[in-house]
Amino acid sequence: MLNNKKIVWLLAVLSAVSMIITACAPQTVTVVQTQVVTVKETQKVEVPVIQTQVVAAKSFTKPHPVLGDAKVRQAIAYCTNRNELIASVYPWLPKEEQGNLFMNTFIPRVHWANEDGADVVKYPFDLAKGQAMLTEAGWTAASPTAIRTNAKKETLSLKFTTTNAAFRQTWAAVFEAQMKKCGVEILRLHTPSGWFFGSTTGLRRRDFELGAYAWVGQTDPAGRTLYSCTQIPVAENDWQGQNYMGWCNKAASDAINAANNTLLKDDRKKFYKIAQVEFAKDMISLPVFQRAEGNAAVKALKNFKPSTTEYYTWNSHEWELDGGRDSLVLGLTQEPASMYSLVESAAVQRVVAKLVFGNATSQVDYDYQPHQLAKLATIESGLAKNNDVEVKEGDPVVDSDGNPTDAKGELLKLAANMKVQNAKGEVVTVKAGDKITMKQLVVTYQWVANKWSDGTPVTKADFELGYKQDCDKKSGAVSFITCNSIQKVDFTSNTEYTVTYKPGFQAPTYFLAPIGYYPSQQVIQSEKFKGKKLGEVPPEAWATLPEIAETPMGTGPYIIKKWDKAKSITLEANPNFYKGAPKIKKLTVVFIADTNQAVAQLLTGAVDALGSETLGAGNEVKLVLDAKDKIQTQIKASGTWEHIDMNLNVP
User: Fold this and answer.
1) What does the pLDDT read at residue 337?
2) Would you place residue 5 in the very low, low, confident or very high pLDDT band (cuts 50, 70, 90)?
3) What pLDDT, in 10s, does the model give residues 76-92?
4) Is residue 307 domain-shared with residue 174, that is, in the same domain?
């Protein structure tokens, strides 16, 4: 049974939900249930779990009566002890490692585009300062422990909505207690993720006041859909965009749009700095922490260099083992479905694919590095040009949103009423008969001279086959955006080709090679196509070829020799690898369904390395950390970061 205090608390939540139903878009029918959650070993709390059904939708036109005030938002930031929140989720992590998870802006601190200097407002935990700012904003407390009220005797109470994930229940309970000390009442609502991230509910309908969830940071920071004034979801635009806060700061919006319409890296840094400065100043979203992820290996393994933005096998050609050992065992909790990278993109597939195919480029620590691509094909390197061209009605183009096709999948041609970006970076609406000057990228991609694992050189024909297969609608590929954005390709040698993109294509990662290669000389041995060369096999049949799906020929440091389904993949060093054969001659990937069992095998020596996709960041990591005499553990601040968005508007 609930005690009186909990009954009052639950009634308050029900009252708040009732208020939200009548005041916030969309209108909803809401059911509140409670579930018992263990926050600490000795503490259990009952958390309301909200389930809703959409009834109607309204626009957002007025400032939120509380969160519309920047002083209140900033006070909440100062009253939040983020170090304590981090410690509640990762109590086993050393203090120094916990500190590495701290963020001040929407871009991680080690990112090339991060701005963490003096111009960015910081919000260290300062309870007294937060309380003083609330008082200044008109929210006063009758006593040091009382919930604050304003001149109208309204309570400083905010709905805090997040998912029912266990770790969020943990840190949200701590956040609630922190806000209470500041005089802010938090009505904590834990919803099913299907509702919170639904297409017609939760965030998409801005049905929250404080909303806690995660974004995934990338090597290219993007951000336009998150922070541009044009990306605020409201009923009038059919709830398009991910700027759920309703934040429209012209300086930030212009900067984030410019950063995504500019190709020079130094210029992009300047624009991202402006956006981050404004983001922190306005405090519309409080970065809470980057999630941790663990990678572990035996101490005997040298050059083990996992990165939060790259699969840990990216540099397997550099690995060595002490003590004269020349074989290594990796553990995965999931088996790849196929080695055909065009149709299979699971993390475990990519871990193995790096061993077999190597890297054209890598993206270690949020930046790009060339490998089999001789150098990055950037404007700065002289390999790319962004020309001004005149485009007339009927010419193929990419529109201002980066789409080469319309909603039906038809290739776009310049036409009246279409929106495109002109050469000045302005979005313009085309009028009948218009001729528009637009930017057109022409990029030359240069590769190192390379060999297949059977010793035959990679040739122009292999790149031509790569283009033909990957852009064929029957290949099984799930996206053809890049293929449809290409106007023409000139294959000029065994190590070089030039791509002319359609006018309007201005992707910031244009320097990443859009076309790979397949072994055109390979003769198929499987029965149905026996004796045919790979290029003679119909595109739709590739996924079923053992030569593609199970034992593909590659140019990476290792060759798949045997795949024992549900058990292991055995690989051997590639003697024809362009950087020389790896020192570890045999590598075995074993499949262990349970993470705890995988950790146990690491600790007993049956497995030599576990990546973050297997080890994760749960309590299992503590077992590995405790075995520091024989295990090297690297805890990384992942690209996934928790934050609390503040909804600036109400209907």
Assistant:
1) 96
2) very low
3) 999 999 999 999 999 99
4) no
pLDDT of residue 25: 33
Which tokens go with 437? 């000057």
pLDDT for the residue 284: 98
Indicate the number of domains in the chain: 3
Question: DSSP labels for 305-322?
Answer: --BTTB-GGGGGGG-EEG
CA nearest 496: which of 382, 580, 377? 377
- Calpha distance 231→175 (Å, rounded): 29
The residue behind tokens 């020389």 is: 580
Answer yes or no: are the C-beta atoms of 131 and 146 closer than 8 Å: no
Which domain range does residue 55 map to?
4-290+641-650
Give the end of a domain, one of 460, 483, 501: 501
- Residue 70 CA to residue 454 CA, distance in Å, equals 64
Same domain for 264 and 120: yes
126 closest CA partner among 183, 72, 184, 77:
77
Average pLDDT over residues 271-282: 98
At 61, is the pLDDT very low, low, confident or very high (cuts 50, 70, 90)?
A: confident
Cα 342 from Cα 478, distance rounded (Å)? 8
Q: Give residue for tokens 């579930």.
A: 35
Token look-up 């920071």 returns 221
The H or E element that residue 17 is part of is helix 4-23
| 525 strand-pairing partners | none
- What digits encode the pLDDT tens for the residues 575-592? 999 999 999 999 999 999
Q: Which two tokens stand for residue 324?
A: 């004269």
Q: Does residue 533 belong to any structural domain of this protein? A: no
Q: Indicate whether 352 and 444 sit together in one domain.
A: no
First to last CA, the chain: 38
CB neighbour class for 222 (10 Å; exposed up to 12, middle 13-18, buried from 19): middle
Whether the pLDDT of residue 32 is over 60: the answer is: no
Distance, CA of 64 to CA of 76 (rounded, Å): 15
pLDDT at 41: 35
Q: Would you say residue 506 lies in a domain? A: no
- If you average pLDDT over every residue of the chain, what do you get? 91
Q: Does one domain contain both 425 and 566?
A: no
pLDDT at residue 50, rounded to an integer:
39
Based on the domain organization, do 56 and 172 belong to the same domain?
yes
Q: Do 314 and 404 share a domain, yes or no?
A: no
Q: What is the rounded distance in angstroms from the CA atom of residue 159 to the CA atom of residue 47?
A: 13
Sign of the C-alpha dihedral computed for residues 627, 628, 630 and 631 taken in this order: positive
165 and 47 share a domain?
yes
Q: How far apart are CA 506 and CA 402, in angstroms?
A: 8
Q: Per the domain annotation, does 539 fall within a domain? A: no
CATH label of the domain that carries residue 201: 3.10.105.10
**Residue 270 sits in the same domain as residue 327:** no
